[in-house]
Design brief:
Length: 257
């Protein structure tokens, strides 16, 4: 594809892996102490996080800022999926958006079910196989009423398929720091990020088993609930698909028990 005659970069061409690694390392070096200093999050359980090897952070989801809070609080690099539109386009605003999300360790993913969702799932699997840590939300989308909803089985599928341990994460107060509709985070109140002990879901069976995926998901959600202390909704969050993990579950069998 011929590059257009413009001074803006071709947003359809992804940056090289070395450029992504450099941007992430620089972003983590600069943003992490800044965010901790400004927002002073309470962080517990960092000692539970393996510093090497594949890891899945499975968290409750209350706010847009959750995908910033987890990488800032974790003792190692964390990757997550973000809408491809954050990485596309020209102009100063789009370039800043692309730089910001790359620096946070985000990987672009297309909206939609079907092939796009399967590609997102494969993207996460490849990151795990490369020894990376990824963050996912089993509920699929943000909880707008503060309750903890039933987990989709996509996270358990990845854990069972790759053998990666799952670190449950309980986020408290992120919806107060950055409520729905807010443009920037509030300095008060302070959020709490809790990392639980690693969960090995392999005892539940193979990834091909629907029962194994359901039981593994329930174990993960129970650990998240213990950390977050949220009221249980006892149902799925049926808001229309807005996040990558929600779209992944649309093309995976998910058991409703």
């Amino acid at each position: 594809m011929t590059e257009p005659e413009t001074t803006e970069p071709d947003s359809s061409t992804p940056p090289s892996p070395s450029r992504v690694r450099f941007a992430y390392a620089l972003g983590r070096f600069l943003l992490t102490p800044l965010a901790r200093g400004l927002y002073r999050p309470r962080i517990t359980g960092r000692e539970n996080v393996p510093l090497t090897g594949p890891v899945i952070f499975a968290s409750n989801h209350l706010s847009f800022i959750d995908s910033i809070a987890i990488p800032v609080a974790a003792p190692r690099n964390v990757r997550f999926l973000a809408k491809a539109t954050y990485f596309e386009g020209t102009g100063l605003a789009k370039r800043l958006s692309r730089t910001f999300f790359t620096a946070l360790g985000a990987s672009p993913v297309r909206r939609g079910a079907g092939q796009a969702a399967l590609e997102a799932l494969e993207q996460q699997k490849q990151l795990l196989e490369a020894g990376e840590a990824i963050a996912l939300y089993p509920e699929g989308t943000r909880s707008l009423d503060g309750r903890l909803y039933k987990g989709r089985t996509g996270v358990a599928f990845l854990a069972l398929q790759t053998g990666a341990p799952v670190i449950p994460v309980g986020l408290i107060g992120t919806d107060k720091v950055m409520p729905v509709g807010a443009k920037i985070p509030h300095l008060l109140p302070r959020a709490t990020i809790k990392f639980g002990t690693p969960i090995d879901v392999s005892a539940h069976g193979p990834a091909s088993s629907g029962r194994a995926r359901r039981l593994a998901t329930d174990e993960i959600m129970a650990a998240i609930h213990e950390l977050s202390g949220q009221e249980l909704a006892h149902s799925y969050n049926e808001v229309p698909a807005q996040t990558p993990i929600e779209r992944i579950r649309q093309v995976l069998p998910h058991e409703r028990r």
